[in-house]
């Protein structure tokens, strides 16, 4: 019996336990989890331009100076164009074009600039390939490794040769996006806390603006009342033959402020009437 009595006394306290850590806020704040952008996308990698569409009628690299193709039949010539060959040939042509943007001389393929041009061309070709075949996991890994390697190269240049770093970014249409110094998870709780703080700041600013407008609307009457009070106090002090604390300069300054504000309000009222009449 004693055990049953104890359970009856404990039961009401158990029913009063309410979950409070996941209650919905009464504020009109809605948080939507941001879409996760993969690191292989141009938005994260820093590539401002995709791989351009190369003209298909352009000849292959090894046959551009061929004299036989200049006089050859049209059907034979088409066999040696980029359009009728593998995609790898277009990529190689694009690599050569990117290297020519930043190379130091015609045979330069080992400098920092040439390596960055080759990596950029390879990255943009793989990004175009991933858009068509998003399930190629091996290509995704290769692309991620290339992007990380290019970031390391750019970080080294940024530290030791900033002028060359800016030159490469401009020539290759890149934006350097370093890794964040402090990593933090995006959680609903922290995001709602930030949004609540922003919402409270907006409420405070709107109320301060309303109060400021209210005070500005009462400013003209306040100055008029202040001017009359100062004149009355000065007159009474002179009649009672006590030390005068209100000087004529103070009254003159208040009267000037009152007249200027009155003219400003009249000009503002006229400017508001002109659009209504027109």
UniProtKB/TrEMBL annotation:
Pfam families: Ribosomal_S15
Lineage top rank: taxon: Eukaryota
Gene Ontology MF term list: RNA binding; structural constituent of ribosome
This protein's record includes keyword Metal-binding: no
Keywords associated with the record: Mitochondrion, Ribonucleoprotein, Ribosomal protein, Transit peptide
Record GO biological process: mitochondrial translation
Cellular component, GO, one term: mitochondrial small ribosomal subunit
InterPro entries cross-referenced by the UniProt entry: Ribosomal_uS15, Ribosomal_uS15_bac-type, uS15_NS1_RNA-bd_sf, uS15_ribosomal
Localization per record: Mitochondrion
Main location: mitochondrion
Family to which the UniProt record says this protein belongs: Belongs to the universal ribosomal protein uS15 family.
Protein name: Small ribosomal subunit protein uS15m
């Amino acid at each position: 019996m004693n055990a049953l009595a104890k359970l009856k006394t404990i039961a009401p306290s158990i029913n009063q336990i309410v979950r409070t850590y996941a209650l919905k806020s009464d504020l009109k704040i809605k948080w939507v989890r941001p879409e996760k952008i993969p690191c292989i996308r141009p938005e994260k990698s820093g590539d401002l331009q995709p791989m351009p569409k190369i003209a298909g009628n352009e000849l292959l690299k090894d046959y551009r100076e061929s004299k036989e193709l200049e006089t050859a039949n049209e059907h034979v010539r088409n066999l040696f164009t980029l359009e009728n060959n593998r995609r790898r040939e277009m990529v190689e042509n694009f690599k050569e074009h990117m290297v020519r943007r930043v190379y130091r001389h015609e045979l330069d393929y080992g400098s920092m600039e040439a390596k960055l041009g080759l990596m950029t061309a390879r990255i943009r070709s793989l990004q175009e390939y991933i858009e068509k075949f998003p399930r190629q996991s091996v290509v995704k890994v290769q692309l991620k490794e290339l992007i990380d390697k290019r970031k390391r190269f750019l970080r080294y240049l940024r530290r030791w040769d900033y002028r060359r770093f800016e030159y490469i970014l401009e020539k290759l249409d890149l934006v350097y996006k370093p890794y964040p110094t402090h990593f933090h998870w995006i959680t609903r709780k922290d995001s709602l806390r930030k949004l609540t703080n922003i919402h409270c700041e907006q409420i405070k600013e709107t109320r301060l603006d309303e109060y400021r407008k209210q005070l500005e609307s009462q400013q003209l009457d306040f100055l008029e009342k202040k001017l009359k009070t100062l004149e009355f106090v000065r007159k009474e002090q002179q009649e009672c033959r006590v030390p005068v604390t209100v000087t004529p300069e103070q009254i003159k300054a208040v009267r000037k402020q009152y007249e200027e504000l009155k003219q400003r309000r009249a000009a503002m009222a006229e400017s508001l009437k002109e659009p209504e009449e027109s």
